[in-house]
Design a protein that fits this description.
Tet_transcr_reg_TetR-rel_C_sf; repressor; mainly alpha; transcription cis-regulatory region binding; Homeodomain-like_sf; disordered N terminus; DNA-binding; 9 helices
Length: 215
């Protein structure tokens, strides 16, 4: 009797390959183009197999965001470790923080995860907070360094970082969705103007200490 043919088991691709494929799909076709079935075809897995690993699409999106943030985090740490003034590195931080342009895939994914987080469980919320916390801590440290060196006006680094990131978040939404008049270059110029006005040492324009009177 002829023996039955042996079944060939195909190993699942590394999880990082799946997450990279998910981000590539978002970049090419937007979030509407990302489906479990379509992603499975891209990586040679069934949608059921993907659900086995990720359980839900919400989990897939959050994992993909964490993967993208890991890469951005490494880039952020490298640029913050470069020589140069605190202001030069702050400008580089902001350049990395802001979207590359309309429909930036990372920010498109961020906005989707934020929107879904209204019903997220405590674990998902903690993971999102961890992403936010990494950006915040690095910014606080950079601001504190600039203040200690006399490059920046004396500010509460934590409070200033919170406000600056809120400003950048708002601008980033505008850039990502393509609101007219808020392209990346325009937003970079606005951010630079804000830093000039709020962090440059010495009296601010209009401050009482900066007003001179004729004798």
């Amino acid at each position: 009797m002829t023996p039955a043919p042996r079944r060939t088991h195909h190993a699942a691709p590394p999880r990082e390959d799946v997450l990279a494929a998910a981000m590539a799909t978002i970049a090419a076709r937007g979030l509407d183009g990302l489906t479990m079935a379509g992603l499975g075809r891209e990586v040679g897995m069934s949608s059921g197999h993907l659900l086995y690993y990720f359980r839900t699409k919400d989990e897939l999106l959050l994992r993909t965001l964490e993967w993208s943030e890991d890469r951005l985090g490494a880039e952020r740490r490298a640029l913050l470790a470069e020589p140069g003034t605190a202001r030069e590195r702050l400008d580089a931080y902001i350049g990395l923080y802001l979207p590359a342009g309309h429909r930036d895939p990372h920010w498109t994914l961020w906005l989707e995860v934020w929107g879904r987080s209204q019903n997220a469980d405590d674990d998902a919320r903690a993971r999102q907070a961890a992403i936010e916390g990494a950006w915040h801590r690095d910014l606080v440290a950079l601001l504190a360094e600039g203040v200690s060196r006399g490059e920046f006006r004396t500010v509460d680094a934590d409070r200033f970082a919170t406000r600056l990131r809120a400003l950048l978040d708002g601008f980033s939404v505008h850039v990502t969705v393509g609101i007219p008049g808020t392209g990346r270059e325009q937003v970079l110029a606005q951010a630079a103007e804000f830093l000039d006005e709020t962090l440059t040492p010495g009296p601010r324009q209009g401050d009482a200490t900066g007003v001179t009177t004729a004798s």
